[in-house]
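User: Please fill in residues for this 175-position structure.
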């Protein structure tokens, strides 16, 4: 079933406010959820859920492991220089080191270096800093983010070492 985003957001709010049981009823085109004295009914979205597994790359062989909070802080600092339009940050990887950099149209530059676990061939790849921050926000402090890359033009898979259920696909951009 495909539940509308707005309904999911409302259900999430209601679940956070209530400690009791939740009753769920489903038919072929509606979902009904009951909480104590509140009942939420939503129409389901027609159609079939897309085959998301087709967009998850399988052959990415360059593995980067980085502590999530230090990565997030580095991206945040470097991204302050990038333009509002592109928000691009370049990641330059070499053995044991990740160098994040950004440039602005008025020739300002920012560079930050982070120690990482990386042993594959050097690579430079660019990403939208907002997407990097969104992913880093989801990974628990103290846990490591694992980036699986193929090359600078292919999608990157990001996982959380501490959460087997977390998987993110990130499209690179030219920088």
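Assistant: Residues filled in for all 175 positions:
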């Amino acid at each position: 079933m495909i539940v509308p985003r707005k309904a999911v957001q409302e259900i999430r709010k209601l679940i956070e406010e209530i400690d009791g049981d939740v009753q769920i009823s489903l038919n072929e085109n509606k979902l009904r959820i009951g909480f104590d004295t509140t009942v939420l009914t939503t129409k389901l979205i027609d159609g079939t859920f897309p085959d998301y597994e087709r967009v998850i790359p399988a052959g990415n062989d360059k593995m980067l492991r980085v502590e999530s909070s230090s990565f997030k802080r580095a991206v945040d600092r470097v991204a302050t220089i990038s333009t509002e339009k592109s928000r691009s940050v370049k990641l330059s990887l070499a053995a044991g080191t990740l160098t994040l950099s950004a440039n602005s149209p008025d020739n300002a530059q920012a560079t930050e270096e982070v120690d990482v676990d990386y042993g594959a061939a050097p690579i430079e790849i660019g990403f939208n800093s907002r997407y990097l921050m969104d992913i880093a926000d989801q990974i628990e402090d103290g846990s490591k983010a694992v980036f699986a890359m193929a090359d600078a033009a292919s999608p990157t898979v990001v996982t959380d070492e501490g959460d087997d259920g977390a998987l993110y696909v990130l499209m690179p951009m030219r920088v």
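For context: The chain has two domains: 5-43, 59-170.
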